[in-house]
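A protein record pairs a chain with a discrete description of its three-dimensional fold. The following entry can be read in just this way.
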Amino acid sequence: MNIKAITGLSLVLLSGGSLLAQDGLTLAESIRKAWTDQAGLRAGQAMVESRQAEAEGFRDLRLPSLTLQAQGVRTNEPMMAFGIKLNQARIGAADFNPQSLNHPDPIGAYGGSAVIQQPLYAGGRITAARRAGDYMAQAEVASQERRKQETAQAVVEAYFGTQVAEQALKWVEDSRTWIQGMEDFVGARVQQGLMLESELQRLKAFHAQIDAQKADVTKQMRSARSGLGLLTGTGPVEGPLATPLEPTEPMAAPAPGQRGDLLAADLQAKAAGEGAKAASGSLRPEVGLELGAGTLHHSWSEKGNWTWAGVGLKWKVFSAPDRAKARAARAQENAAREMRTFKQQQAEHEVRVAKESVLAAQARYAAAKESLVAAEESKRLREARHKEGLAPLIEVLDAEAAVQGAHTLILQSLFELRVSRASLDLASGNPIEGVKP
């Protein structure tokens, strides 16, 4: 590897120090902060409450409804004037005079009524609507749980991404210290006439590149902390992160879990089935009971009171729009069932991919550790040969690049291992990093 390869390395994934974290914010605390403080998840919880309120409304369709009405009127319209007097219970013989009937004097009245309506049978629509509402409310709860787990996976990525950026910054500082030592050594040799000035200039150019990379890594570290704060809903995260990047325990085989999105898809399919039943019920007869009482006053003492009770049947024998709605509801039911099947297949695919990603990251991590041992030994030997004047500077820089590459692969594989483990938890329906509410 040559000097050009050094500048092409992603210093965001370099580490020159220990991978053990200090006391500070843990990953579990970050995930729980996101669950409680993130505005996006709070919006999702509001949607859950909305669906639950809708379900309560559907459950209440079987209850009777009470309607109260108050009115005041003044008119000389012949039919209304006669009817108002009749309802006020003050019709007399003079009211049948054709002149009075045809040209009544203006009459005023005030009163009100109370009506209770109770559905007795609605073609199965009420029961189907209640079940559909319950299923949709449960589906929203399951979707919210899935959103929380997806957020937890994003927190894992941001949390360890922040750690990687910080380790990269430490490695940049170590690289600056190393290159400064090399500059001092080569500068002394140049003054003694034992090395060419061009080698010192090459080191200074490399030093300038490291300084530029430090500024870039600093920006990425701050962006990573800001992103973690966005997910946790707390603003840019300050202070150390306590959970180590390297896993402390091997990952056990994932146990079958319940994915919120699959549960939601199943419940949505059931809700669509009940919706189809409700739509078909619109073509069946309806039976209802109505009880009422009314009063109409001419004055406080002159008034009429009445009551009524009735059972009615209504049957919309043919309605092209209702038939079309029933067909559309059946199509929506079929679509929901097919989506449920697709999501199940997608989940199985995600589990397979996540398992392969974990194995690949583990293999890369093992290979990187072996490469680092070899690269550090090669660098030690080349530095010793260079100080004795037996090897050119380019060989030392190549050895440094090899060490950087090994560190890059170690952090890349560790970062990918943590993210792929979280992805496997998410795909299999298990708590991310074992964190539960």
